[in-house]
Amino acid sequence: MLIPHASYTNPEKRIIIISGAGLSAESGISTFRDSDGLWENHKITDVCHEMTWKNNWELVHKFYNDRRVQLASVEPNEAHKTISRIKEKYKDECYVITQNVDDLLERAGVNEVLHLHGNLKKMECISCAHNWDIEYKKFDTETDRCPKCNSKKGVRPSIVFFGGQAPMYNYMHRALEYLENKESVLIIVGTMGNVISFQSLISRETIKGNQVAHHKTVRARTILNNLEENEYFSNDIFDETFYEKATTALPKIEKWLEENY
Ligand code: NAD
Ligand code: ZN
């Protein structure tokens, strides 16, 4: 989804939904937080880092092979389905953006999803820059090769690793330009907000004595849904907060949009 720049002086109103691992938690895919900074019992630095993936090549493939096989066995939940209804209703006025690498939003029917951190069902080759679909299949580290140049060790999952480039962030920043319209709505669902600091993108911090305060710097309405409060999001910068499961929060947010957008 190639989000266009907003008009500088008078951006149109938009609904921007940004999700993280919590959105897919009720489908049975673990978040990071579930396991104390581990992802399915692996250190992020072992399986998801630009500096280590080549040295851990076998492990990296095993890890993402497992994630792909797991993905084939889970289903979109009510929160994905609600986002699909919202997108269907507001169409091009709604941008669906996710940090997730699963395809559950697409399987719930969302036709355009901006994946900030890549896609489990795609592979790429750093030797020749080819990329291809692997669907839910395993990459066999013994026999499989890049289909274009036959490289073995150049093949990696098409996932944005820590320390790597995230070209899709440009489009997220474009989407956030629309928050200058006070009719726009930003909905953040199921993310700790530490991998991407959404708070710093939409607010500024002031410190008076030992009091820290956060002030929203965008004109749009803002909504947060997580299971619980955390240090990366101040309630002060949200018009609505839902600290509960995404499957119960999203239908409430859908209703909120009907009444307020
Ligand atoms: P995180 O694991 O750091 O945080 C999860 C957040 O979701 C927490 O704030 C928690 O309160 C909330 N949450 C958990 N269960 C929830 C539920 N049922 N309903 C509502 N909220 C719930 O996730 P993150 O901030 O997205 O960062 C993790 C990074 O890891 C992302 O960049 C992502 O690419 C990757 N990741 C992806 C997947 C996936 O694709 N499904 C899974 C794990 C990690
Ligand atoms: Zn290649």
In short:
The chain is α/β, with parallel strands linked by helices. Helix content is 27%, strand content 23%.
Report on the architecture of this protein:
The model has no long low-confidence stretch (mean pLDDT 95). The two termini are 23 Å apart. The radius of gyration is 19 Å and the shape is globular. The chain has eight helices and 13 strands. The longest helix is centred in the first third of the chain and has 16 residues, at 57-72. 37% of the residues are buried. The chain has helices at 22-25, 44-47, 57-72, 78-90, 104-107, 169-177, 198-202, 246-260; strands spanning 15-19, 38-39, 42-43, 94-98, 114-115, 118-125, 131-133, 155-159, 185-189, 203-208, 211-216, 221-226, 240-243. 27% of the residues lie in helices and 23% in strands. Helix 4 runs parallel beside helix 8 (246-260). The protein is α/β, with parallel strands linked by helices and 261 residues long. Helix 5 (104-107) links the parallel strand 4 and strand 5.
The SSE order reads: EHEEHHHEHEEEEHEHEEEEH
What's the number of extended β-strand segments? 13
Major sheet attributes: 6 strands, parallel
Helix content: 25-40%
Terminal residue distance: 23 Å
The proportion of residues in beta strands is 15-25%
Q: Could you say which structural class the secondary elements and strand pairing correspond to?
A: alpha/beta
Average pLDDT metric: 95
Q: Roughly how many Å is the radius of gyration?
A: 19 Å
Give the cofactors and ligands: nicotinamide-adenine-dinucleotide, zinc ion
- Show unreliable segments: none
Q: Please, how many helices?
A: 8
List the strand order in the largest sheet: 5-4-1-9-12-13
Oligomeric grouping of the chains: single chain
Shape: globular
